[in-house]
Design goal:
Layout: E1 5-9, H1 12-34, E2 37-41, H2 45-54, E3 64-68, E4 70-72, H3 82-89, H4 110-121, E5 134-137, E6 161-164, E7 174-177, H5 179-183, E8 187-192, H6 198-205, E9 219-223, H7 224-227
Parallel strand pairs: 1-9, 2-3, 2-5, 5-8, 8-9
Antiparallel strand pairs: 4-7, 6-7
Amino acid sequence: MNALNARVFSNADELGQFAAELTAKAAAEAIAARGVFHLVLAGGNTPRICYEKLHNMDVDWPRTHIWFGDERCLPVGDSDRNDRMADEILLKHVDIPANQIHRMQAELGPEKAAETYAALLGDASAKDMVRFDMVHLGTGEDGHTASLFPGHATLADDRLAVPEFDSPKPPPERVSMGLRTLNAARQKLILAAGAGKADALNRIRAGEKLPVAMIEDALWLLDKAASGQ
């Protein structure tokens, strides 16, 4: 892919396996260097495959902190929440303290949820905010990532976490980490599988500044269908 650092896999299962292995490696390196691993999880089908693999890997979960890139403003426990998927596929299978799972309180509504998550992330100084060791991101067919959508004010919002009131995908109300927060991470993985993603990737190749293309220095993990190969 032009101007993008990408690896292409035969299918989504191979992609998910590689992403899980890379995450386990990042965890070991972060814990050796700093004593803790800060990981941001994504929603969606492709990250789900990664998390199915990850819970069987040798990760020092008691030294891991889990964060969420975005969340839907739905009641706690709703089946469409990203943290519900993470619980069922990964978190209930690993030995991680509950107070090290930092959930977005999206049930409070977009503005309050963004405010409370920003407080967890740190103050307005990038020096003091949590700097994640690894961020997992997906992308939609429109090129959105997390809950940052093309043409929306969230892309220019410099807060650590941002409210979304008018998502083109249901539900309309969401909360997301801001671009500044995501771009501060040490490693960023963008996981994309399926032919439905190929058009957005072709638009990015052509130079269109879709939200997912605004993630700096990311490693793109694609299956053949998404890559257009």
